[in-house]
Amino acid sequence: xxxxxxxxxxxxxxxxxxxxxxxxxxxxxxxxxxxxxxxxxxxxxxxxxxxxxxxxxxxxxxxxxxxxxxxxxxxxxxxxxxxxxxxxxxxxxxxxxxxxxxxxxxxxxxxxxxxxxxxxxxxxxxxxxxxxxxxxxxxxxxxxxxxxxxxxxxxxxxxxxxxxxxxxxxxxxxxxxxxxxxxxxxxxxxxxxxxxxxxxxxxxxxxxxxxxxxxxxxxxxxxxxxxxxxxxxxxxxxxxxxxxxxxxxxxxxxxxxxxxxxxxxxxxxxxxxxxxxxxxxxxxxxxxxxxxxxxxxxxxxxxxxxxxxxxxxxxxxxxxxxxxxxxxxxxxxxxxxxxxxxxxxxxxxxxxxxxxxxxxxxxxxxxxxxxxxxxxxxxxxxxxxxxxxxxxxxxxxxxxxxxxxxxxx
Length: 409
What we know:
Blueprint: H1 20-23, H2 26-54, E1 58-59, E2 61-63, E3 65-67, E4 73-83, E5 86-89, E6 95-100, E7 107-108, E8 113-117, H3 120-162, H4 168-207, E9 210-212, E10 217-222, E11 229-230, E12 240-241, E13 245-248, E14 253-260, E15 272-277, E16 284-297, E17 302-309, E18 321-327, E19 339-343, E20 348-350, E21 353-360, E22 363-375, E23 378-383, E24 390-392, E25 406-407
Parallel strand pairs: 1-25, 11-12
Antiparallel strand pairs: 2-24, 3-19, 4-14, 4-18, 5-13, 6-8, 6-11, 7-10, 8-9, 10-13, 14-17, 15-16, 15-18, 16-17, 19-23, 20-21, 21-22, 21-24, 22-23
């Protein structure tokens, strides 16, 4: 005890030392490093979670609109945009394509040349037929000269016969020569006529080597290439094309839908309808029922209905999917009344309740709404929304009330 006591009587701390072996103990150093690393990871993870939590997602919005129309929706149907005039232009003969002048998307006029086929054979046949006709026509001149001479000889023989200077046999032979030449003249003329007909056929074969558009429209398909064989019949299998190009008259586009036969009584010609293209779900296109095809499909229990657009638009393309709402008679609507329609994708239905996210000043507000009828790709909202508000239309399941959000540009 006296060894660690100082002169003043207190403990002498200068004798205390840290054991160098304990300071260099690797187990204690490793544990300290692990503890520091775990703490840093927790801090970084918490910071990342906070950043992701506060990160504003990009959203797509649409403006709420109120439908002021007074026509009720009677039924909905789905179909496609179809043209009344659509044709795959084919050649009338079998030949090789020498030139083709159209491509997809090109507008053509009636009578415009679409392609030219190899016409070497047709041109050779035409020249041969013309030569035959000219040769036949040349015999007419010789027969006419012989007929004139035979008629003069007949007149001389008849004069001699009247004077009893020649035998009756001579007169008969002169008459026979005239009649024979006249018959040969008639035969030659008929042969020339037949040759003219063959020339027209050969000329038609030559003209068939030029393929023209029967009506104006847009080329939607180029079905043959230069150097390929085309034929009105598929005699060559997969190596022979049967068409040159497919043309659609864009002015004849209309809607074709299948209506369940149980509801066909609600449809009549001239009835107004509203069409919504799948490609443009926010665009309502007015149209009218053109005709109800007077037959039913026994397999699908449907009746085909065709509707004409009130006004065509370049955005309307053949074979586009379309949803049609058939409207009823006009009804009176009180002032200030109307139906608020929103896209189906904006409605979040959970547990028998419906909600919509409203975007206002960079924040989202989850708002409960009361729903009405379905109208195509839209739902009627009876209560909970005001006209002109912006609502979220996509990804609503991943959003929450009060969350910051940015409108996608």
